[in-house]
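Predict the assembly for these two chains.
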Amino acid sequence: MKRPVQENLFEEGPPPRLLGSRCRETGELFYPVQAMNPVTHREGTMEQVALPSTGVLLNFSRIARAAPGLPSPFAIGIIALDGGPTLTAQLTDWQDVELRTGMPVEMTLGCVRTEPDGTSLIGPQYRPAGGSRT
Amino acid sequence: MSGVYVVAAGMTPFRQHPDTAVHELARQAVWAAITSSGIDPEAIELAYAGHAYQGQCFGQKALLKIGITGMPIVNCENACASGASAVWGVYNAIKAGQADIGLALGAEKLSGRGGGFTPMVADDLESIMGRVMPAVFAMMARKHMERYGTTLEQMASVAVKNRRGGVLNPYSAWTENITIEEVLAAPMIAEPLTRLSCCPVSDGAAAVILASERVVRRLTGKPVAIRAAVMASGRRNDVGMADDNSEMTIRAARQAYEIAGIGPDEIDVCELHDPFTIAELVHCEDLGFCAPGEAGPLALGGHFDRDGAVAVSPSGGLLARGHPLGATGVAQIAELFWQLRGEAGDRQVPDARAGLAHTVGGGVTGIEAGATSIHILTR
Protein backbone atom coordinates (compact mmCIF):
# COMPACT_ATOMS: atom_id res chain seq x y z
CA MET A 1 0.00 0.00 0.00
CA LYS A 2 1.15 3.51 -0.72
CA ARG A 3 -0.36 6.98 -0.71
CA PRO A 4 0.86 10.58 -0.97
CA VAL A 5 2.20 12.00 2.29
CA GLN A 6 -0.23 14.89 1.79
CA GLU A 7 -2.98 15.50 -0.79
CA ASN A 8 -2.33 18.14 -3.44
CA LEU A 9 1.39 18.25 -2.62
CA PHE A 10 2.82 17.12 -5.99
CA GLU A 11 1.98 15.88 -9.49
CA GLU A 12 3.52 12.58 -10.50
CA GLY A 13 4.53 13.59 -14.02
CA PRO A 14 6.90 12.61 -15.46
CA PRO A 15 8.69 14.67 -14.53
CA PRO A 16 7.38 14.86 -10.94
CA ARG A 17 6.80 18.42 -9.74
CA LEU A 18 5.82 19.91 -6.41
CA LEU A 19 2.66 22.00 -6.36
CA GLY A 20 2.66 25.48 -4.95
CA SER A 21 0.89 28.79 -5.23
CA ARG A 22 1.78 31.91 -7.20
CA CYS A 23 0.34 35.29 -6.26
CA ARG A 24 -1.09 37.06 -9.33
CA GLU A 25 -0.41 40.42 -7.67
CA THR A 26 3.15 40.01 -6.43
CA GLY A 27 4.42 37.04 -8.45
CA GLU A 28 5.79 35.40 -5.31
CA LEU A 29 5.87 31.59 -5.28
CA PHE A 30 4.84 29.64 -2.19
CA TYR A 31 5.14 26.00 -1.12
CA PRO A 32 3.00 24.11 -0.33
CA VAL A 33 -0.31 25.32 -1.85
CA GLN A 34 -1.71 28.25 0.14
CA ALA A 35 -5.35 29.26 0.67
CA MET A 36 -4.40 32.97 0.71
CA ASN A 37 -1.31 35.17 0.48
CA PRO A 38 0.26 35.26 3.96
CA VAL A 39 2.50 38.21 3.01
CA THR A 40 -0.17 40.60 1.67
CA HIS A 41 -2.92 39.05 3.83
CA ARG A 42 -5.17 38.96 0.75
CA GLU A 43 -7.48 36.16 -0.34
CA GLY A 44 -8.36 35.25 -3.94
CA THR A 45 -5.02 36.26 -5.49
CA MET A 46 -3.36 32.84 -5.53
CA GLU A 47 -3.19 30.37 -8.41
CA GLN A 48 -1.90 26.83 -8.20
CA VAL A 49 1.30 26.16 -10.14
CA ALA A 50 3.86 23.39 -10.58
CA LEU A 51 7.17 24.43 -9.00
CA PRO A 52 10.65 24.05 -10.54
CA SER A 53 12.01 20.52 -10.08
CA THR A 54 15.66 21.56 -9.78
CA GLY A 55 17.47 23.56 -7.14
CA VAL A 56 20.56 23.98 -5.02
CA LEU A 57 21.44 22.32 -1.71
CA LEU A 58 21.87 25.00 0.97
CA ASN A 59 22.42 22.78 4.00
CA PHE A 60 22.23 19.08 4.91
CA SER A 61 22.72 16.44 7.57
CA ARG A 62 23.08 12.66 7.54
CA ILE A 63 20.98 11.15 10.33
CA ALA A 64 22.48 7.93 11.64
CA ARG A 65 19.70 6.87 13.98
CA ALA A 66 16.27 7.39 12.59
CA ALA A 67 12.97 7.92 14.35
CA PRO A 68 10.25 5.27 13.95
CA GLY A 69 8.81 5.30 10.41
CA LEU A 70 11.77 7.06 8.79
CA PRO A 71 14.48 5.37 6.69
CA SER A 72 17.65 4.54 8.65
CA PRO A 73 20.06 6.05 7.99
CA PHE A 74 18.76 8.93 5.95
CA ALA A 75 19.85 12.36 4.80
CA ILE A 76 17.92 15.61 4.80
CA GLY A 77 18.63 18.93 3.20
CA ILE A 78 17.45 22.49 2.68
CA ILE A 79 16.88 23.08 -1.02
CA ALA A 80 16.44 26.45 -2.75
CA LEU A 81 14.36 25.67 -5.82
CA ASP A 82 15.53 27.45 -8.97
CA GLY A 83 13.54 30.70 -9.03
CA GLY A 84 11.21 29.39 -6.38
CA PRO A 85 10.76 28.84 -2.66
CA THR A 86 13.14 27.08 -0.26
CA LEU A 87 12.11 23.88 1.49
CA THR A 88 13.37 21.02 3.65
CA ALA A 89 13.18 17.48 2.26
CA GLN A 90 14.90 14.12 2.30
CA LEU A 91 17.83 13.46 0.00
CA THR A 92 18.23 10.26 -1.98
CA ASP A 93 21.14 8.61 -3.81
CA TRP A 94 23.46 10.39 -1.36
CA GLN A 95 25.38 7.41 0.00
CA ASP A 96 28.19 7.46 -2.56
CA VAL A 97 28.34 11.22 -2.99
CA GLU A 98 30.23 13.88 -1.08
CA LEU A 99 27.36 16.19 -0.18
CA ARG A 100 28.27 19.86 -0.22
CA THR A 101 26.66 23.25 0.00
CA GLY A 102 25.84 24.63 -3.45
CA MET A 103 25.37 21.20 -5.03
CA PRO A 104 22.66 21.10 -7.74
CA VAL A 105 19.82 18.70 -6.94
CA GLU A 106 16.72 17.49 -8.74
CA MET A 107 13.43 16.18 -7.46
CA THR A 108 12.21 12.62 -7.50
CA LEU A 109 9.36 10.85 -5.69
CA GLY A 110 9.97 8.19 -3.08
CA CYS A 111 8.85 6.68 0.21
CA VAL A 112 9.52 9.35 2.84
CA ARG A 113 7.90 7.53 5.73
CA THR A 114 6.37 4.14 6.52
CA GLU A 115 3.19 4.03 8.60
CA PRO A 116 2.86 1.48 11.44
CA ASP A 117 0.53 -0.59 9.18
CA GLY A 118 3.21 -0.76 6.48
CA THR A 119 1.74 1.90 4.18
CA SER A 120 4.41 3.85 2.28
CA LEU A 121 3.95 7.62 2.32
CA ILE A 122 5.16 9.05 -0.99
CA GLY A 123 6.72 12.50 -1.10
CA PRO A 124 9.47 14.61 -2.64
CA GLN A 125 13.12 13.61 -2.38
CA TYR A 126 16.12 15.33 -3.96
CA ARG A 127 19.13 13.66 -5.56
CA PRO A 128 22.46 15.11 -6.66
CA ALA A 129 22.19 16.39 -10.25
CA GLY A 130 25.90 16.59 -11.01
CA GLY A 131 28.03 19.70 -11.55
CA SER A 132 28.23 22.60 -9.12
CA ARG A 133 26.76 26.07 -8.91
CA THR A 134 26.84 28.73 -6.24
CA MET B 1 3.88 49.99 37.71
CA SER B 2 3.59 47.32 40.34
CA GLY B 3 6.10 44.51 40.34
CA VAL B 4 5.68 40.76 40.10
CA TYR B 5 7.92 38.50 42.16
CA VAL B 6 8.90 34.86 42.43
CA VAL B 7 8.37 33.78 46.03
CA ALA B 8 8.71 29.99 45.89
CA ALA B 9 10.01 27.19 43.67
CA GLY B 10 9.98 23.43 43.67
CA MET B 11 10.79 20.62 41.29
CA THR B 12 11.29 16.89 40.96
CA PRO B 13 14.54 15.38 39.76
CA PHE B 14 14.59 15.29 35.95
CA ARG B 15 15.19 11.68 34.96
CA GLN B 16 13.14 8.72 33.79
CA HIS B 17 10.26 8.12 36.21
CA PRO B 18 8.58 5.16 34.45
CA ASP B 19 6.43 4.19 37.44
CA THR B 20 5.17 7.64 38.43
CA ALA B 21 2.18 9.31 36.74
CA VAL B 22 2.78 12.78 35.37
CA HIS B 23 0.10 14.24 37.65
CA GLU B 24 1.97 12.86 40.62
CA LEU B 25 5.24 14.37 39.40
CA ALA B 26 3.45 17.72 39.08
CA ARG B 27 1.97 17.34 42.56
CA GLN B 28 5.42 16.72 44.02
CA ALA B 29 6.84 19.86 42.38
CA VAL B 30 3.94 22.07 43.53
CA TRP B 31 4.05 20.63 47.02
CA ALA B 32 7.81 21.27 47.20
CA ALA B 33 7.19 24.93 46.31
CA ILE B 34 4.43 25.20 48.92
CA THR B 35 6.26 23.45 51.76
CA SER B 36 9.56 25.23 51.16
CA SER B 37 7.83 28.62 51.39
CA GLY B 38 5.06 27.98 53.90
CA ILE B 39 2.52 29.55 51.52
CA ASP B 40 -1.07 28.45 52.22
CA PRO B 41 -2.40 26.36 49.29
CA GLU B 42 -5.75 28.14 49.79
CA ALA B 43 -4.06 31.48 49.06
CA ILE B 44 -3.23 30.52 45.45
CA GLU B 45 -5.76 32.34 43.29
CA LEU B 46 -4.98 31.02 39.82
CA ALA B 47 -2.69 28.61 37.99
CA TYR B 48 -1.25 28.02 34.54
CA ALA B 49 -0.08 24.51 33.70
CA GLY B 50 2.38 24.00 30.84
CA HIS B 51 2.77 20.67 29.05
CA ALA B 52 3.12 19.40 25.49
CA TYR B 53 1.71 15.86 25.48
CA GLN B 54 -0.12 15.24 28.77
CA GLY B 55 -3.74 15.56 27.67
CA GLN B 56 -6.78 17.59 28.61
CA CYS B 57 -7.06 19.36 31.98
CA PHE B 58 -3.65 18.07 33.07
CA GLY B 59 -3.23 20.95 35.55
CA GLN B 60 -6.54 20.26 37.29
CA LYS B 61 -5.65 16.58 37.65
CA ALA B 62 -2.38 17.48 39.35
CA LEU B 63 -3.69 20.22 41.64
CA LEU B 64 -6.75 18.36 42.91
CA LYS B 65 -4.38 15.97 44.64
CA ILE B 66 -3.31 18.86 46.90
CA GLY B 67 -6.85 20.17 47.20
CA ILE B 68 -6.21 23.24 45.06
CA THR B 69 -9.56 23.46 43.26
CA GLY B 70 -12.16 25.95 42.22
CA MET B 71 -9.94 28.77 41.00
CA PRO B 72 -8.99 29.49 37.36
CA ILE B 73 -6.62 26.84 35.98
CA VAL B 74 -5.42 27.36 32.41
CA ASN B 75 -3.53 24.59 30.59
CA CYS B 76 -1.14 25.81 27.94
CA GLU B 77 0.80 24.11 25.16
CA ASN B 78 3.65 25.81 23.28
CA ALA B 79 5.91 22.79 22.65
CA CYS B 80 9.26 23.25 24.46
CA ALA B 81 8.18 26.75 25.55
CA SER B 82 5.01 25.50 27.30
CA GLY B 83 6.37 25.94 30.82
CA ALA B 84 7.72 29.40 30.08
CA SER B 85 4.32 30.27 28.61
CA ALA B 86 2.73 29.26 31.92
CA VAL B 87 5.06 31.61 33.83
CA TRP B 88 4.28 34.40 31.35
CA GLY B 89 0.56 33.80 31.80
CA VAL B 90 0.70 34.02 35.59
CA TYR B 91 2.96 37.09 35.40
CA ASN B 92 0.47 38.88 33.17
CA ALA B 93 -2.52 37.87 35.29
CA ILE B 94 -0.88 39.33 38.40
CA LYS B 95 0.28 42.40 36.49
CA ALA B 96 -3.32 42.95 35.36
CA GLY B 97 -4.63 42.70 38.93
CA GLN B 98 -6.45 39.40 38.41
CA ALA B 99 -4.70 37.86 41.40
CA ASP B 100 -2.09 38.53 44.06
CA ILE B 101 -0.73 34.98 44.23
CA GLY B 102 -0.49 32.65 41.23
CA LEU B 103 1.10 29.31 40.44
CA ALA B 104 2.96 28.29 37.27
CA LEU B 105 3.63 24.61 36.87
CA GLY B 106 5.06 22.55 34.08
CA ALA B 107 5.44 18.82 33.68
CA GLU B 108 6.13 16.17 31.07
CA LYS B 109 6.47 12.45 30.94
CA LEU B 110 8.36 11.29 27.85
CA SER B 111 9.51 7.84 28.97
CA GLY B 112 7.26 5.02 27.84
CA ARG B 113 6.51 6.79 24.57
CA GLY B 114 8.58 4.33 22.56
CA GLY B 115 11.96 6.03 22.87
CA GLY B 116 13.78 7.72 20.05
CA PHE B 117 13.53 11.37 19.21
CA THR B 118 11.18 13.73 20.98
CA PRO B 119 7.79 13.54 19.26
CA MET B 120 7.34 16.09 16.52
CA VAL B 121 4.59 18.60 15.94
CA ALA B 122 2.29 15.79 14.81
CA ASP B 123 0.70 17.19 11.67
CA ASP B 124 3.61 19.30 10.41
CA LEU B 125 4.42 18.36 6.79
CA GLU B 126 8.20 18.69 6.83
CA SER B 127 8.43 17.05 10.26
CA ILE B 128 6.50 14.04 8.95
CA MET B 129 8.96 13.88 6.04
CA GLY B 130 12.00 13.72 8.32
CA ARG B 131 12.76 17.21 9.61
CA VAL B 132 13.44 15.77 13.07
CA MET B 133 14.93 18.03 15.75
CA PRO B 134 18.47 16.56 15.67
CA ALA B 135 18.56 17.22 11.90
CA VAL B 136 17.43 20.83 12.38
CA PHE B 137 20.13 21.53 14.95
CA ALA B 138 22.72 19.61 12.91
CA MET B 139 22.06 22.04 10.06
CA MET B 140 22.21 24.96 12.50
CA ALA B 141 25.67 23.66 13.42
CA ARG B 142 26.79 23.26 9.80
CA LYS B 143 25.73 26.83 9.00
CA HIS B 144 27.51 28.26 12.03
CA MET B 145 30.64 26.24 11.26
CA GLU B 146 30.66 27.34 7.61
CA ARG B 147 29.99 30.99 8.36
CA TYR B 148 32.15 31.51 11.43
CA GLY B 149 34.60 28.63 11.55
CA THR B 150 33.07 27.23 14.74
CA THR B 151 34.72 23.89 15.52
CA LEU B 152 33.56 20.50 16.77
CA GLU B 153 35.75 20.96 19.87
CA GLN B 154 34.12 24.31 20.67
CA MET B 155 30.66 22.75 20.43
CA ALA B 156 31.72 19.74 22.48
CA SER B 157 33.00 22.04 25.24
CA VAL B 158 29.38 23.09 25.84
CA ALA B 159 28.42 19.49 26.64
CA VAL B 160 31.40 19.16 28.98
CA LYS B 161 30.59 22.40 30.85
CA ASN B 162 26.89 21.65 31.16
CA ARG B 163 27.55 18.11 32.34
CA ARG B 164 29.74 19.63 35.08
CA GLY B 165 26.70 21.65 36.17
CA GLY B 166 24.42 18.64 35.98
CA VAL B 167 26.72 16.53 38.14
CA LEU B 168 26.56 19.22 40.86
CA ASN B 169 22.76 19.55 40.53
CA PRO B 170 20.69 17.19 42.69
CA TYR B 171 17.78 17.62 40.24
CA SER B 172 19.86 16.16 37.38
CA ALA B 173 20.24 12.43 36.72
CA TRP B 174 23.90 12.75 35.71
CA THR B 175 26.63 11.72 38.12
CA GLU B 176 29.75 11.56 35.92
CA ASN B 177 31.67 14.22 34.08
CA ILE B 178 32.66 13.84 30.41
CA THR B 179 35.52 15.05 28.24
CA ILE B 180 35.62 16.73 24.84
CA GLU B 181 37.14 13.53 23.43
CA GLU B 182 34.22 11.47 24.77
CA VAL B 183 31.68 13.86 23.25
CA LEU B 184 33.37 13.66 19.85
CA ALA B 185 33.73 9.85 20.00
CA ALA B 186 30.12 9.15 21.06
CA PRO B 187 27.78 7.49 18.52
CA MET B 188 26.71 9.84 15.73
CA ILE B 189 23.06 10.96 15.81
CA ALA B 190 22.86 13.65 13.12
CA GLU B 191 26.15 14.85 11.65
CA PRO B 192 27.94 16.64 13.26
CA LEU B 193 26.01 16.03 16.51
CA THR B 194 26.88 12.93 18.55
CA ARG B 195 24.71 11.43 21.28
CA LEU B 196 26.53 13.44 23.97
CA SER B 197 25.74 16.63 21.98
CA CYS B 198 21.99 16.02 22.47
CA CYS B 199 19.75 16.32 25.53
CA PRO B 200 18.42 13.08 27.01
CA VAL B 201 14.78 11.96 27.19
CA SER B 202 13.55 12.66 30.72
CA ASP B 203 10.46 13.08 32.85
CA GLY B 204 9.86 15.68 35.52
CA ALA B 205 7.93 18.64 36.86
CA ALA B 206 8.65 22.11 38.19
CA ALA B 207 6.56 24.81 39.88
CA VAL B 208 7.00 28.45 40.88
CA ILE B 209 4.70 30.71 42.88
CA LEU B 210 4.46 34.36 41.83
CA ALA B 211 3.14 37.23 43.92
CA SER B 212 2.17 40.87 43.51
CA GLU B 213 3.91 43.87 45.03
CA ARG B 214 0.96 44.20 47.40
CA VAL B 215 1.49 40.87 49.17
CA VAL B 216 5.09 39.90 48.47
CA ARG B 217 6.58 41.06 51.77
CA ARG B 218 4.07 38.98 53.71
CA LEU B 219 5.28 35.86 51.90
CA THR B 220 9.07 36.13 51.89
CA GLY B 221 11.94 38.33 52.99
CA LYS B 222 13.92 37.35 49.88
CA PRO B 223 11.73 37.94 46.83
CA VAL B 224 13.14 37.71 43.31
CA ALA B 225 11.71 40.32 40.95
CA ILE B 226 10.59 39.48 37.40
CA ARG B 227 11.81 42.57 35.58
CA ALA B 228 10.65 41.51 32.11
CA ALA B 229 8.49 38.69 30.73
CA VAL B 230 8.45 38.63 26.93
CA MET B 231 7.10 36.11 24.47
CA ALA B 232 7.27 36.09 20.69
CA SER B 233 6.54 33.70 17.85
CA GLY B 234 8.61 33.03 14.77
CA ARG B 235 8.23 35.12 11.66
CA ARG B 236 7.77 33.64 8.17
CA ASN B 237 10.94 31.79 7.30
CA ASP B 238 11.66 28.87 4.99
CA VAL B 239 14.59 27.26 6.83
CA GLY B 240 13.04 27.07 10.31
CA MET B 241 15.62 26.99 13.10
CA ALA B 242 18.35 25.63 10.81
CA ASP B 243 20.17 28.95 10.68
CA ASP B 244 23.20 30.50 12.38
CA ASN B 245 21.03 32.84 14.45
CA SER B 246 17.50 33.09 15.81
CA GLU B 247 15.78 36.30 14.67
CA MET B 248 12.95 35.51 17.07
CA THR B 249 15.29 35.27 20.06
CA ILE B 250 17.19 38.42 19.08
CA ARG B 251 13.90 40.35 18.77
CA ALA B 252 12.47 39.09 22.09
CA ALA B 253 15.74 39.67 23.94
CA ARG B 254 16.01 43.27 22.77
CA GLN B 255 12.48 43.91 23.97
CA ALA B 256 13.15 42.25 27.34
CA TYR B 257 16.38 44.20 27.95
CA GLU B 258 14.56 47.45 27.17
CA ILE B 259 11.64 46.66 29.50
CA ALA B 260 13.96 45.56 32.31
CA GLY B 261 16.41 48.45 31.85
CA ILE B 262 19.16 45.85 32.08
CA GLY B 263 21.68 45.04 29.36
CA PRO B 264 23.26 41.72 28.42
CA ASP B 265 26.53 42.76 30.08
CA GLU B 266 24.68 42.96 33.41
CA ILE B 267 23.38 39.38 33.30
CA ASP B 268 25.28 37.18 35.78
CA VAL B 269 23.48 33.88 35.18
CA CYS B 270 21.50 32.56 32.22
CA GLU B 271 19.45 29.44 31.65
CA LEU B 272 18.95 29.14 27.90
CA HIS B 273 17.52 26.71 25.35
CA ASP B 274 20.30 24.18 24.75
CA PRO B 275 18.70 20.93 23.57
CA PHE B 276 21.83 20.48 21.43
CA THR B 277 25.33 21.88 22.01
CA ILE B 278 25.26 24.24 19.02
CA ALA B 279 22.10 25.92 20.33
CA GLU B 280 23.95 27.30 23.35
CA LEU B 281 26.57 28.96 21.16
CA VAL B 282 23.98 30.44 18.79
CA HIS B 283 21.77 31.69 21.62
CA CYS B 284 24.66 33.24 23.58
CA GLU B 285 25.18 35.36 20.47
CA ASP B 286 21.44 36.00 20.01
CA LEU B 287 21.12 37.13 23.64
CA GLY B 288 23.97 39.62 23.20
CA PHE B 289 26.52 37.96 25.48
CA CYS B 290 29.01 38.22 22.59
CA ALA B 291 29.09 39.15 18.92
CA PRO B 292 27.96 36.72 16.19
CA GLY B 293 30.67 34.13 15.58
CA GLU B 294 32.45 34.69 18.90
CA ALA B 295 30.64 32.15 21.07
CA GLY B 296 32.65 29.10 19.99
CA PRO B 297 36.11 30.35 21.01
CA LEU B 298 34.69 32.03 24.13
CA ALA B 299 32.95 28.80 25.22
CA LEU B 300 36.15 26.80 24.84
CA GLY B 301 37.98 29.48 26.85
CA GLY B 302 35.56 29.29 29.80
CA HIS B 303 33.68 32.55 29.23
CA PHE B 304 30.31 30.88 29.94
CA ASP B 305 31.50 28.72 32.85
CA ARG B 306 30.05 29.14 36.34
CA ASP B 307 32.96 31.44 37.24
CA GLY B 308 33.13 33.06 33.79
CA ALA B 309 31.85 36.43 32.56
CA VAL B 310 28.29 35.11 32.37
CA ALA B 311 27.39 31.74 33.85
CA VAL B 312 25.34 29.91 31.22
CA SER B 313 23.18 26.98 32.31
CA PRO B 314 24.88 26.29 35.68
CA SER B 315 22.02 23.84 36.33
CA GLY B 316 23.32 21.70 33.47
CA GLY B 317 20.77 23.14 31.09
CA LEU B 318 18.60 20.99 28.87
CA LEU B 319 21.72 18.99 27.98
CA ALA B 320 22.54 17.86 31.51
CA ARG B 321 19.62 18.73 33.79
CA GLY B 322 17.24 17.20 31.27
CA HIS B 323 14.40 18.42 29.09
CA PRO B 324 10.92 17.22 30.04
CA LEU B 325 9.39 19.66 27.54
CA GLY B 326 6.62 21.40 29.50
CA ALA B 327 8.64 21.40 32.73
CA THR B 328 11.76 23.05 31.30
CA GLY B 329 10.67 26.69 31.19
CA VAL B 330 9.43 26.56 34.78
CA ALA B 331 12.58 24.75 35.94
CA GLN B 332 14.67 27.57 34.43
CA ILE B 333 12.78 30.14 36.55
CA ALA B 334 13.19 27.90 39.61
CA GLU B 335 16.94 27.68 38.97
CA LEU B 336 17.26 31.48 38.65
CA PHE B 337 15.18 31.90 41.84
CA TRP B 338 17.64 29.70 43.75
CA GLN B 339 20.72 31.25 42.11
CA LEU B 340 19.59 34.81 42.85
CA ARG B 341 18.79 33.93 46.47
CA GLY B 342 22.17 32.22 46.92
CA GLU B 343 20.48 28.85 47.49
CA ALA B 344 21.90 26.87 44.56
CA GLY B 345 24.28 24.74 46.62
CA ASP B 346 27.38 23.37 44.92
CA ARG B 347 26.41 24.92 41.58
CA GLN B 348 25.95 28.45 43.00
CA VAL B 349 27.12 31.28 40.75
CA PRO B 350 29.12 33.70 42.93
CA ASP B 351 27.20 36.90 43.77
CA ALA B 352 24.51 36.42 41.11
CA ARG B 353 22.33 39.54 40.94
CA ALA B 354 20.59 39.37 37.55
CA GLY B 355 19.46 36.32 35.59
CA LEU B 356 17.88 35.58 32.23
CA ALA B 357 15.81 32.56 31.14
CA HIS B 358 15.24 31.70 27.47
CA THR B 359 13.24 28.98 25.76
CA VAL B 360 12.35 28.12 22.17
CA GLY B 361 9.51 25.80 21.24
CA GLY B 362 7.99 24.08 18.27
CA GLY B 363 9.21 23.17 14.80
CA VAL B 364 6.52 24.52 12.47
CA THR B 365 7.08 24.58 8.70
CA GLY B 366 6.83 28.13 7.37
CA ILE B 367 7.98 30.08 10.43
CA GLU B 368 11.28 30.10 12.32
CA ALA B 369 9.73 28.27 15.31
CA GLY B 370 6.56 28.26 17.37
CA ALA B 371 7.51 30.35 20.38
CA THR B 372 10.29 31.97 22.34
CA SER B 373 10.27 33.42 25.82
CA ILE B 374 12.65 35.67 27.73
CA HIS B 375 12.33 36.32 31.46
CA ILE B 376 14.75 38.66 33.26
CA LEU B 377 14.94 38.35 37.04
CA THR B 378 16.85 40.27 39.70
CA ARG B 379 17.34 39.78 43.42
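The two ends of chain B are 18 Å apart (CA to CA). The first helix of chain B runs from residue 22 to 37.
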